[in-house]
């Protein structure tokens, strides 16, 4: 990941403590891994929300359909 751009972010004390605890537990090697895992979960959630919203939009369109209009 040597060509990966870096970002500076400000975190609350609670988020910093959580990241430190995750690294200390051995689940992650460093803070960047924790943040990347969190971002991946947000992406998955957003994809799931988008996928779940599509059928509802189609249902609404069918409910508004009136023959002869």
TrEMBL record:
This is Type II toxin-antitoxin system ParD family antitoxin. Belongs to the ParD antitoxin family. It comes from the Bacteria. It holds the Pfam family ParD_antitoxin. Keywords: Toxin-antitoxin system. The keyword Secreted does not apply. InterPro entries: ParD, ParD_sf, Ribbon_hlx_hlx. The keyword Iron-sulfur does not apply.
């Amino acid at each position: 990941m040597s060509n990966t751009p870096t970002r500076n972010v400000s975190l609350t004390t609670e988020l910093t403590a959580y990241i430190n605890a995750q690294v200390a537990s051995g689940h992650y090697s460093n803070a960047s891994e924790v943040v990347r895992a969190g971002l991946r979960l947000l992406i998955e959630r957003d994809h799931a929300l988008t996928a779940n919203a599509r059928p509802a939009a189609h249902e609404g369109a069918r409910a508004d359909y009136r023959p002869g209009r």
